[in-house]
Amino acid sequence: METLKIIKIGGNIIDDQITLNAFLHNFSKIKGKKILVHGGGKLATQLAAQMNVPVKMIDGRRITDAATLEIITMVYAGKINKNMVAKLQTHQCNSIGFTGADGNSIVSEKRPINTIDFGFVGDVVTVQTQTIDVLLKGNITPVFCAITHDKNGQLLNTNADTIASELAIGFAKKYNVELYYCFEKNGVLKDINKADSVIENINTSTYKTLVADGIIADGMLPKLANCFYAIAHHVQKVCIGKPDMLFNPNPKHTTIQA
Amino acid sequence: METLKIIKIGGNIIDDQITLNAFLHNFSKIKGKKILVHGGGKLATQLAAQMNVPVKMIDGRRITDAATLEIITMVYAGKINKNMVAKLQTHQCNSIGFTGADGNSIVSEKRPINTIDFGFVGDVVTVQTQTIDVLLKGNITPVFCAITHDKNGQLLNTNADTIASELAIGFAKKYNVELYYCFEKNGVLKDINKADSVIENINTSTYKTLVADGIIADGMLPKLANCFYAIAHHVQKVCIGKPDMLFNPNPKHTTIQA
Asked: How far is B173 from chain A (nearest CA, A)?
């Protein structure tokens, strides 16, 4: 099977124009089929402040009310996504910006209210690969932002890590999918204060120990959950680290194994 | 040749949610291949006011400075475009939102500075139909907002009427293209105070007389220029009127002829 690389980048790359430009330049040079998934970084928070829209939090979790969803749609799907697409075109990487509504590619449902009403947040229900695949075959690179829709006209804010893993799983029947989570660290660290204490391989068994020992905690828990979810659903390769892992030979990073 | 309908809608449809929903419902029922092009309406001006970004005008012409371009990108390509796409999906009209940067479909150049520097405003240079055509053949409806790019990483604000006529001309070799400009009036009016004084046919010769007599003036001049430009470049049919002209049998509207 042909390889498809799905690469997710976060705020640390998006928030700095020079870092982002360098990344997009390198990304455009990656041979073969690829999909880029991006989060939002600090820009949405900045716009909310500028528009006097308060950030709504419950129990330390951010709530997506109607005003926040509007801001997210403008910043993620508008400003960030379209500027990335324009930049990729300068590097001869022909791309098209996507939300899950485009091509009906990612349908989600509004997260059910248990103790917290997260507002307009979507949990992915289905990924439709057909249209995206037509574009991939036409040498076009889809660039996804972290927005989906419910097929009833409602856009929904959706975690970018989840979008990346769901796309990876959706394409795992057709392609040898490699999923790369790029973030600010070299990988999963044994000691959070030591940048080079990268755990190079984590499997289901060592994962449990690392969680029990408190080495994997907080924000790393949902990220790793996405990784193992992908691995359990036929994604061939899942890696976490700095974007360097994509471009240079063998920089340290974490590889997730079944 | 197969027919391709290119339909441009303006602010009067976009600014009112009920009108827009009704339009999108009817639009989704149009059989055959179609492209939707939309402007921005009042929403960008509203956001600019909310963000305290002053509207810059020179000689009554709006200037697109960097802050304004950012707002336009967020509102046109984010908020308006993605909500339209989500809404069309509810009507089983599979669509993808586009700027000219997406698929490298519309390349423009920053308008040269003569007496006025319009800022980040783009005049269309080339339309690339290949990727859009792949989508049309896959029963997908592209939805274009009024933004293009210069292939050097710069997004540019571009007149939506022009985008519609340039797309129409670009596809005129492959399709029997029909171009519809939907606006708030029944068509070009003989007497601006009489809604039913529609001039049903205008050709190159009568156009000159209507301009000389001052019947076609102001904002109608660039609109008509786009119409005749399209007709002169093998677009089969160009109509101006209310969206009704698309959905109902024979409501009054203006048809442009060579």
From this structure: 21
Can you give the C-alpha Rg of chain A in angstroms? Answer: 18
User: What is the identity of the amino acid at B95?
Assistant: S
Does residue A94 sit in helix, strand or coil? coil
> Across the A/B interface, how many CB contacts are shorter than 8 Å?
128
Chain A contact set for B149 (CB, 8 A): 86, 89
b (16+ CB within 10 A) / e for A125-156:
eebebebbbbbbeeebbbbbbbbbbbbebbbb
Flag if B90 and A138 touch (Cβ within 8 Å). Answer: no
User: Quick check: B203 and B31 in contact, CB under 8 A?
Assistant: no
Q: Which of A43, A50, A102, A155 to mutate to test the interface with B (most CBs of B within 10 A)?
A: A102
Domain membership of residue B197 (yes or no) is: no
* pLDDT tens-digit series, residues A104-151: 999 999 999 988 899 999 999 999 999 999 999 999 999 999 999 999
Determine the structural domain holding residue B172 and report its residue range. 3-184+207-242
| B202 located within any domain | no
* Count of the separate structural domains present in chain A: 1
Residue B253 in domain: no
CATH code: domain of residue A215: 3.40.1160.10
Q: Residues of A with CB below 8 A from B134's CB?
A: 134-135, 138
Q: List average pLDDT for each run of 10 residues in chain B, which is 258 residues long.
A: 97 93 97 96 90 85 93 97 98 98 98 92 97 97 98 97 98 98 94 93 95 91 94 97 91 92
Residue B57 lies in a domain: yes
> In this predicted complex, what is the ipTM?
0.96
